[in-house]
Calcineurin-like phosphoesterase superfamily protein
Amino acid sequence: MKPNIFFTADHHFGHENIIKFSERPFESLEHMNEELIKRWNERIGKDDIVYHLGDVSLGKPDVTKDILDKLNGKIHLIKGNHEYSALRVPDRFEWIKDYHELYIEDEEAAARKQKIILFHYAMRTWNGSHRGVWQLYGHSHGTLPDDEMALSFDVGVDCHNFYPVSYEEVKEIMKKKKWTPPFAPRN
């Protein structure tokens, strides 16, 4: 069976002030960490593939390692601006990059592959944006308004009830966008 593919960002494990900054509904740092781990593992199996688009943890490296050891899945990290601790446990990640162009086999996509640009930050334009390539990002914690004319959106936990988002969910969101190719023939 093919593994499921998930996207997420901005967990900020070990960051007590994020509860206040992002108005997260958690009573304490411990409650937030436990709930984020629980919701991650409810969706992700041990063989599933996860693309984390940055800001895994602001906790100390030993705390971060303990949390990462509790998370299911094969995690690929796109670096955010808060990765000091995550970078000290590189063995927990399949790879660590600043940016990635992902291709997912999909019978419904053009050429049977969906190309997705993965980056911590939202972009207004990206490689292939005028050809139906998607862009997923984090960093903004749901503070950027979604652009229904662009094939991009925030996969951060603050936007998705603190759960990772599956490829199928991303695809459904993209289908609802009003994007049209800018160079398509006009009637």
